[in-house]
Amino acid sequence: MLPPISHPRRDPNAWSENAEEFYPERFIGSNIDLQGHHFELLPFGSGRRGCPGLQMGMTTVYSIVDQLVHCFNWELPSGVNAKDIDMTENFSLSMGRANHLYAKPTYRLS
Ligand code: HEM
């Protein structure tokens, strides 16, 4: 397995000095979309070989994340601080975490 490395798309010249920071607010007011028109963000590829399952993929992602957030309260294991979470990525065809994220769900709809 390759060692985790920083992703080349985290280029401060394309984004800003906080390119490495988890800062989703950077997309507020931006015209960058997921359709493959903007090379900063290409989760589904681009052009004629781009992913034909984009709509189904996004519907699935929204549905799963919505249910996880709606049905559970989430906590970090005791002793783990949010700023200590290891966000290192495993650079590959798709980019997963290098190390597992542990979080404790508690069902909240009983
Ligand atoms: C979040 C979910 C998904 C992501 C992130 C994703 C991402 C991708 C990416 C990056 C490619 C390569 C595009 C390229 O080479 O430029 C691709 C291709 C493809 N995807 Fe998806 N995909 C997702 C869901 C789906 C679903 C739900 C389907 C079908 C039901 C699907 C079917 C395909 C097919 C058939 C290709 C090959 C297209 C071709 O080579 O002409 N994908 N996908």
Automatic annotation (TrEMBL):
Belongs to the cytochrome P450 family. This is Cytochrome P450. SUPFAM superfamilies: Cytochrome P450 (SSF48264). It is found in: Membrane. InterPro entries: Cyt_P450, Cyt_P450_CS, Cyt_P450_sf. Its cofactor is heme. It comes from Ficus carica. Gene3D superfamilies: Cytochrome P450 (1.10.630.10). One of its GO terms (cellular component) is membrane. Pfam families: p450. GO terms for molecular function: heme binding; iron ion binding; monooxygenase activity; oxidoreductase activity, acting on paired donors, with incorporation or reduction of molecular oxygen. Its main location: membrane. Coiled coil: none annotated. Keywords: Heme, Iron, Membrane, Metal-binding, Monooxygenase, Oxidoreductase.
